[in-house]
Amino acid sequence: TLLLSIVALSFVVFLFVPSFTEILRPKDRKPRKILKAPLRKMMRHELKSVINEKSDLVSDSIASKNLEGFLKEKNVKFHTIGNSTVRILGNIAFPPNFQVWDNIVVEGSLTAGDYCIFHGSVKAKGDIIIGNWVVLNGNLISKGNIDVKDEVVISGLIHSEGSVRLGENVFIGLSVVADGDVEIHENLSLIHI
């Protein structure tokens, strides 16, 4: 009888152990919400500080010229569209430390030198080459290939109908879309802000 009692008690314990462990287990109230606001604020603050640092670096340089003056000096044909967009007919190469406040639409290829700052978006029908330490507050769009060098901050997206090459320590705020190959180097940051 003692053996029968032990077997019966073992069977009852075996049946109710999962219930007891479920009752004693800590409750999972709900899925935890991932806070995006602090990250967004942090990235916006970081982007603004980078822009301010670069603005201080280029304040006495060629950036003091406006875009239209620069294009006239280089004999590049252009049209102003509205208050904030400049359409450039042909190829354009911006020198280092140049600052552009308008959106840029280029009928040819575009090259941006080191430490350039673009406060709007850039779109080109040809290839785009972005130098080192460039800040772009808008989107980067090309019907050709896009080559982004090192330490570049792009707060918008990159869209290319060709291939995309991203250098080291590149920050991209939204996404990278390419019809061709995408070559990514170390320390790429894709963060939605």
Can you walk me through this structure?
By secondary structure, the chain is an alpha/beta fold. Helices cover 27% and strands 29% of the residues. The protein has 3 helices and 19 strands. The chain has helices at residues 2-24, 37-58, 67-73, and strands spanning 77-81, 85-89, 92-94, 99-100, 103-106, 110-112, 117-118, 122-124, 128-130, 135-136, 140-142, 146-148, 153-154, 158-160, 164-166, 171-172, 176-178, 182-184, 189-190. The strands form 3 sheets. Strands 1-2-5-8-11-14-17 form a 7-stranded mixed beta sheet, with helices on one face. A 6-stranded parallel beta sheet has the order 3-6-9-12-15-18, with no helix packed on it. The protein has a 6-stranded parallel beta sheet with strand order 4-7-10-13-16-19. Residues 54-64 have low confidence and may be disordered.
